[in-house]
Amino acid sequence: MTVCLTGCAEPSGDFAARLLDWYDQHGRHDLPWQKQVTPYRVWVSEIMLQQTQVGTVIPYFQRFMARFPDVHALASATQDEVLHYWSGLGYYARGRNLHRAAQQLVEQHQGQFPRERPALEALPGIGRSTAAAILALSRGQHEAILDGNVKRVLARHQAVQGWTGEAAVQKHLWMLAENLTPAQRVADYTQAIMDLGATVCTRSRPRCDACPVATDCLARAQGLQSSLPTPRPRREQPLRQVCMLIIQGPEGILLEQRPPTGLWGGLWGFPEVASTDDAAAWCQARLGVDPQECHAMEPFVHTFTHFRLHITPLRMWVQDPAAGVMEGAGRVWYKDTAQAGLGLAAPVARLLKQITQEDGETNGSHGEMRNAG
C-alpha cells in the first residue's frame, strides 16, 4: 500500500507558528470546556465529542457538568442516571465507559487524573489520542493528538493516501502529528489544529482560501481536497428486523432494562420480539394475559455504524397483568418522559414522545413511576 503520494514532503518548520497565529484570530475560545479548565472537564468533553458535532455536545456537556461537576460526583452516581444524562448522544458505550473510568479514578487514583499517558490509556474508553488531549489541553504537556479533524488536516496537507483506519496510514499520521506539535503553547496548538479541521479544512467544501497552511498543502496543489482523506472502503450495511412491544397497562407503559453490554447496553426500552406474530404469545408467557387491543404504528429504520435496524412499533393494551411480571429488578411502569430519570435509546424516547403527543395528558400523570420489584 502506498501511504504517501509522489512529492510528499516534510511540512515546513513554521507550520505550528502559522496555525497558532490563525488560532489567535479565528479559533474558538469560548467553548464551555475551555472555561475553568480541568482534566475532568476536558475528558468529558473529549468523550462526548467522539462521533458527535460540537453544536450537539454543548447542551449535553452543560447539563452533565451541572449534575456531575467532578469525578467523585460521577463515580458515585448510578449507571441509570449517567445514561439518562447521556440519552440522545448515541454511542452509549461512551457513557458506560465514562462511568466505569470515573469509579476507577476514585478507587485507584484518589480521584486524581494521572499525569502519564499510559496510565490514562488504561482507563475504560480512553485511547491514545483522548489521553493525549486530556494532558495537552488541561496541563499543556507535550502530547500529540490524532482525532478525526487532525487526521483530515494532516492527510490533506501531506497528501497521505489510504484509509486512515489502516495501520500503516495511522502510523504515518502519528509520526506527522508528533513532529508538528510544538514544545510551547501545546494546549493552544492542540485546540488550533482541531478547530482548523472543524471550521476550515472540513469534510466537504474546505475553505482553502482561509487556511493558514494552504501555501504548502499538497492536496490543494494537486487538486485532491475532495478525495482526501481516502474514504473508508464501503461495506453493505445489513438490515435487521425487530418488533418493539409498547405495552400499556393501568400503571403506564412497560419498559425493560437491556443487558449491560451490547446494543443500547444498560438503557431502558420496550420488550422486543422478532415479528408482530410473536406479540400475543409474549404477553401470554410474560404477563399471563392476552392483549385487549393491538395497534401497529408506522415502521421506521434506525441507522447504526455497521447496520440498519428496521423497527416495527406495536402498541398493546393489557388489563390486570400477572403480579409476577414486576418481580425483581429490570422493569418499570413508565408514565412521564420528562421526569423519569432513565437512560433511553433514541428510538425509545422518540416513540414515548410520540405516544404522549397522541394520547395527551392521561390518567392525571405527573411523572409518577413505579419501580419493578
TrEMBL record:
This is Adenine DNA glycosylase. SUPFAM superfamilies: DNA-glycosylase, Nudix. It holds the Pfam family NUDIX_4. One of its GO terms (biological process) is mismatch repair. Belongs to the Nth/MutY family. The keyword Zinc-finger does not apply. Its cofactor is [4Fe-4S] cluster. It catalyses: Hydrolyzes free adenine bases from 7,8-dihydro-8-oxoguanine:adenine mismatched double-stranded DNA, leaving an apurinic site. It comes from the Bacteria. One of its GO terms (molecular function) is purine-specific mismatch base pair DNA N-glycosylase activity. Keywords: 4Fe-4S, DNA damage, DNA repair, Glycosidase, Hydrolase, Iron, Iron-sulfur, Metal-binding. InterPro entries: A/G_AdeGlyc_MutY, DNA_glycosylase, Endonuclease3_FeS-loop_motif, Endouclease-III_FeS-bd_BS, HhH-GPD_domain, HhH_base_excis_C, HhH_motif, MIG/MutY. Adenine glycosylase active on G-A mispairs. MutY also corrects error-prone DNA synthesis past GO lesions which are due to the oxidatively damaged form of guanine: 7,8-dihydro-8-oxoguanine (8-oxo-dGTP).
